[in-house]
Amino acid sequence: MSKVAVLGAGSWGTALSIVLADNGHSVRLWTYRKEQAEAINATYRNEKYLDADIPEQIKACHELKQAVDDVSAIVMVVPTKAIRDVCKELNNTLTHRPTIIHATKGIEPGSLKRISQVIGEELARYDSEDIVVLSGPSHAEEVGKRLPTTVTVSSLNTQHAAYAQDLFINESFRVYTSDDMIGLELGGALKNIIALGAGISDGLGYGDNAKAALITRGLAEIARLGVSLGANPLTFLGLPGVGDLIVTCTSHHSRNWRAGNLLGRGQKLDEVLDQMGMVVEGVRTTQAAYQFAREQQIEMPITEGLYTILFEDKQPGDVVEQLMNRNKREEMNDISAFSSDSRPQ
Ligand SMILES: NC(=O)C1=CN([C@@H]2O[C@H](COP(=O)(O)OP(=O)(O)OC[C@H]3O[C@@H](n4cnc5c(N)ncnc54)[C@H](OP(=O)(O)O)[C@@H]3O)[C@@H](O)[C@H]2O)C=CC1
Ligand SMILES: O=C(CO)COP(=O)(O)O
């Protein structure tokens, strides 16, 4: 059995800690808020973030040194915006070299880097090749209840990926491996853009037809951008692609869907984010994907439409009208992204 540190005591960090504890591992759940660590240890609950009892193998802590001392793996689950700061703090703390697994779903606006690239850049003595990503259709709320869930792990270091698979796999949490790190990270990040769109569509009162169209045409956009960055197109037809798109676009558990739903009902972005009180990664990822699509001239009409709603105050109904009135075309013409011929060599 291993000692594992989970960094980030939000919904997903807490749910992943429960999986690890169920597997017999000793878990230190790190939060940057002292009072939260004290409350978790006193009540065995993490009330704001997850409706689940916390097993006693999980000890919450506020000191990063105490969390990572002696562990054989670190699972990073802080929001994208906090990854660099946490890595910097880790550099002042880590004296050994545990396996690093991340389960954060985002792309950094500005640098347009994936999370493993950001970690590889910031963390002394690690390259992005050393990092493992864990992604797939997995709402924390269901994982916390031990409902059947499947995810995929990937790393350019296959031994690290196999170790992560062994660490997490159990009878209700099935873990596959993949050799497509880029596809895993991009699938998990980009589906949040489409989930915001699906929430807006539902908030506007549109039906299942519109949502099915968003998911399908959204998948084409994700694949187009993903393949241009070196992902395997088939990954987007698997758990980290279609799987995560379905779960996020169709579930009330999804923070991105819920935020979109409020936007579709007419609320402003600032109000919505205040109200959510949890991270809505799709907002920053829309910024990043929009920037990339423009720079690389990749056609991403849904992402562009969403960007104008989020950052240019455009009305959701007007954006839908614009999307529905684009030039006539053949459906499969622009899904060439699914062909591996279009991958960069
Ligand atoms: N929830 C889910 O079902 C899933 C989430 N994910 C991904 O996991 C990541 C985390 O999401 P989730 O757990 O849902 O988010 P939550 O909003 O539930 O939790 C985020 C946690 O990170 C903390 N945090 C924020 N900023 C910092 C910082 N600078 N340093 C340390 N901790 C910080 C927050 O603290 P505070 O709130 O006090 O600021 C909070 O405890 C996201 O990338 C998300 O996409 C992936 C799969 C499933
Ligand atoms: O990534 C998720 C499920 O796989 C969770 O999505 P949300 O962040 O939208 O809740």
From TrEMBL:
Record EC number: 1.1.1.94
PROSITE patterns in alphabetical order: NAD_G3PDH (PS00957)
Keywords: Cytoplasm, Lipid biosynthesis, Lipid metabolism, NAD, NADP, Nucleotide-binding, Oxidoreductase, Phospholipid biosynthesis, Phospholipid metabolism
UniProt xrefs under SUPFAM superfamilies: 6-phosphogluconate dehydrogenase C-terminal domain-like, NAD(P)-binding Rossmann-fold domains
GO terms of molecular function: glycerol-3-phosphate dehydrogenase [NAD(P)+] activity
Location of the protein in the cell: Cytoplasm
Reactions catalysed according to its record: sn-glycerol 3-phosphate + NAD(+) = dihydroxyacetone phosphate + NADH + H(+); sn-glycerol 3-phosphate + NADP(+) = dihydroxyacetone phosphate + NADPH + H(+)
Domain Glycerol-3-phosphate dehydrogenase NAD-dependent C-terminal positions: 180-320
InterPro entries in the cross-refs: 6-PGluconate_DH-like_C_sf, 6PGD_dom2, G3P_DH_NAD-dep, G3P_DH_NAD-dep_C, G3P_DH_NAD-dep_N, NAD(P)-bd_dom_sf
Binding site for sn-glycerol 3-phosphate: K105, G136, S138, K191, D244, S254, R255, N256
Pathway: Membrane lipid metabolism; glycerophospholipid metabolism
Nucleotidyltransferase keyword on record: no
Domain of life, source organism: Bacteria
Residues forming the catalytic site: K191
Record-listed NADPH binding positions: S11, W12, R33, Y49, K105, A140, R255, V279, E281
Pfam families in the record: NAD_Gly3P_dh_C, NAD_Gly3P_dh_N
Glycerol-3-phosphate dehydrogenase NAD-dependent N-terminal domain segment(s): 3-160
Primary localisation category: cytoplasm
Function (record text): Catalyzes the reduction of the glycolytic intermediate dihydroxyacetone phosphate (DHAP) to sn-glycerol 3-phosphate (G3P), the key precursor for phospholipid synthesis.
Family under the similarity heading: Belongs to the NAD-dependent glycerol-3-phosphate dehydrogenase family.
The protein, known as: Glycerol-3-phosphate dehydrogenase [NAD(P)+]
UniProt source species: Lentibacillus salinarum
Gene giving rise to this polypeptide: gpsA
